């Protein structure tokens, strides 16, 4: 009996020891902002109109990373890379509009932490599939608010459980995410937690309430005022969350990252267009060259702050390049997770930020985004866009104004070889996975080659004039159509009964199955759908209708669908959501024969 008692006592001691060890592991919080330009933290010291005292306090108490990078110049791929901890082109999510099945098969850092006993929670913008499915990726709690509309959530603002379903908003979306996150800290203050707070700010639509707008009086572009106000709301949220940590003595037990997902979209002209929809989001990338949609510094060199009081020495300005991929690797290490070498592409930053390691965390950083690819090795950076190639010494030329490729061909060759070796590991392999778009070509012309902007400056009060050109082969129903430089713009009819607009085309003779592809951007939140009629049918039927999954953003995206059947498709309708939709192109590709397009 005595032996049994001693054995039981020892077993209970082991359980208690393991429990104590688990509870002693640090909390991890990732603040992730949206289309947030490099200049727009006041601690960066670039501009004096921005006010971010709480993020500044994080930097003062930890590290301001001067050369922090996202993995892509666009929302979805950068978020996929952050969540998985591997470069996103390894699992097929290189750009917006790409299929997410590869991401769905990957193990996120949230899943790893949840399996290890962490309480995990997501707040704000997800952008990696439907909101109700976020729990499939390792998040126990979800508060998916990123606008003023109902959103998927399984907790209330006060952190109480509810069945996951649409929750009507009670607060401005930035404030709501901050409040819910602070509530969960109150709830789980005795357990290790991982909070992913992904504010949809300052991404369009610009929607800051008067409370924050009033902080920025005076003459300035209204879009700039909106961006400053939205970032002020984010900063207040950082303050609420960090003060909640301090209230419960958790500051020194919590590692915090603050990172932007990509650079600000300037649209070259930084047009102060009325309304808060697509266009310049009011944020700035100064002094960096380029913008969102480029692998120049302005596209993916982002705000990056790391704080862990008591572990990371305060007041550092860190000049070695680091990556958002390092978040997962760092979290895995400090949470004592077991991982394999191929699981993560980043490195544990803590030894580097504490001074235990004085070497740079990375020999190189590498990127590929559609037709662009880049590599940074020390201060040298090689950037490719299509067949164009640029070499920059970022120590002397952070603004990427002086292409040194001709002056140092041996360096360009060495970096290109190293970049190619890495790119051949991706899916698909190679330095590019697609062709340069018209927009990207214009950006490279303007920012890197010094050519005049291909887009004309439009006054805010002007309405873009319809473009001239080939007559459309499609007709619009239940809406108004306007030809713009970007494509065909569709909006609801201003008069009469409100019905959903759709484009229609009859008289086709397409051998099925037909592959349908449309390139568009929209401010609406509804579905995109195709309906079709074959030569065997006199009317449209319910069975011949297909909703197409899309990302709920205002960025350009390419959507595809296959219209099944072995009969000839003779009539097609394309339904667009509420709001304003701009269609750049439509293609209906039959099994054999000519492809039908927007114009022919």
Task: Set down the secondary structure blueprint.
Blueprint (H helix, E strand, L loop, with lengths): L1 H23 L2 E7 L19 H8 L2 E3 L2 E2 L5 H10 L16 H5 L3 H7 L3 E6 L16 E3 L7 E5 L5 E7 L5 H15 L5 E6 L11 H4 L8 H26 L6 E7 L36 H4 L3 E4 L8 E3 L3 E2 L2 H9 L15 H5 L9 E6 L2 E6 L2 E6 L2 E6 L15 H15 L14 H11 L26 E3 L1 E6 L2 E6 L9 E4 L4 E2 L2 E9 L5 E7 L10 E4 L8 E7 L4 E8 L5 E9 L6 E2 L3
Short description:
By secondary structure, the chain is an alpha+beta fold. The protein is 24% helix and 24% strand. Helix 6 (173-187) packs parallel to helix 8.
Q: How would you describe the overall organization of this protein?
A:
- It is a single chain.
- By secondary structure, the chain is α+β, with helices and mostly antiparallel strands.
- It folds into three domains: 29-360, 3-Layer(aba) Sandwich (Alkaline Phosphatase, subunit A), CATH 3.40.720.10; 372-448, 2-Layer Sandwich (Arylsulfatase, C-terminal domain); 475-597, Jelly Rolls, CATH 2.60.120.
- It contains 13 helices and 28 strands.
- It has an eight-stranded mixed sheet with strand order 5-4-8-1-9-10-2-11, with helices on both faces. Strands 17, 20, 21, 23, 24 and 26 form a six-stranded antiparallel sheet that branches. Strands 18, 19, 22, 25, 27 and 28 form a six-stranded antiparallel sheet that branches.
- Strand 6 and strand 7 (161-167) form a beta hairpin.
- Helix 6 runs parallel beside helix 8 (222-247).
- The model is unreliable at 1-22 and 455-470 (pLDDT under 50).
